[in-house]
């Protein structure tokens, strides 16, 4: 069982692959999609939940999603058909970091996927290449709420505190026009769902060759969250415009 399959199972009950509740997602999309927006792109779209909600909210909008996981893209296609937005959705199996499109987009989304680009600033640099004049970027990434342990840094990477994170974004030529810091309830709900969905699948498939691995992955993730990073890790979502357009 590879990382992509584990992620799909873990997000079965929390299709937005970030620690955000439904109201937070709606508000972020409301701020990201200006009136008259025509196209939205999600880099690292996974199961496509951001795109599906955006398309449902604006009937004239067209969406494109990019991901390396065919299983995730298949799930997005099936969900788009069920929600009646499939004719306005185009999905690409491709590495998001070097994806190229003939279209410019009014909103570029990349939430919880900065690892695919090598960090927050490289993700923003990639998003910039797809952005239409006056367009916006909706990005979500982690930060340190408190000084982390060396183990937490090893587990989650070289993050910054919230103020430094935002300052680096501004220094890279972006202006925040909206933001949301995930609440403790959102963070805990996401982690409980992640570990619980994966563990539940493992217990329901005890005879599956991947069952033991899935249960071990859920157990390891839960332990890392509770013992290592729960009290120091946060998640910020930003809606950004280019400072010089």
From TrEMBL:
GO terms for molecular function: methyltransferase activity. Pfam families: Methyltransf_25 (PF13649). CDD domains: AdoMet_MTases. Residues 40-135 form the Methyltransferase domain. This is Methyltransferase domain-containing protein. It comes from Streptomyces pristinaespiralis (strain ATCC 25486 / DSM 40338 / CBS 914.69 / JCM 4507 / KCC S-0507 / NBRC 13074 / NRRL 2958 / 5647).
């Amino acid at each position: 069982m590879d990382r992509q399959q584990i992620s799909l199972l873990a997000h079965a009950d929390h299709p937005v692959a970030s620690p955000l509740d439904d109201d937070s997602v709606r508000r972020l999309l409301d701020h990201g999609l200006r009136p008259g927006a025509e196209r939205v792109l999600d880099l690292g779209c996974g199961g496509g939940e951001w795109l599906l909600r955006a398309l449902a909210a604006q009937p004239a909008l067209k969406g494109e999603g990019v991901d390396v996981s065919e299983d995730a893209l298949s799930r997005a296609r099936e969900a788009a058909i069920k929600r009646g937005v499939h004719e306005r959705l185009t999905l690409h199996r491709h590495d998001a970091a070097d994806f190229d499109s003939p279209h410019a987009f009014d909103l570029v989304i990349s939430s919880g996927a900065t690892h695919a680009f090598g960090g927050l600033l490289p993700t923003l640099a990639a998003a910039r290449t797809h952005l239409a004049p006056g367009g916006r970027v909706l990005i979500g990434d982690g930060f340190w709420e408190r000084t982390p342990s060396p183990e937490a840094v090893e587990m989650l990477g070289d993050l910054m505190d919230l103020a430094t994170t935002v300052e680096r974004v501004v220094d890279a030529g972006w202006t925040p026009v909206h933001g949301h810091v995930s609440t403790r309830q959102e963070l805990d709900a996401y982690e409980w769902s992640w570990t619980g969905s994966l563990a539940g699948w493992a217990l329901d498939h005890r005879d599956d060759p991947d069952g033991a691995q899935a249960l071990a992955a859920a157990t390891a993730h839960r332990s890392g969250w509770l013992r290592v990073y729960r009290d120091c890790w946060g998640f910020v979502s930003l809606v950004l415009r280019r400072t010089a357009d």
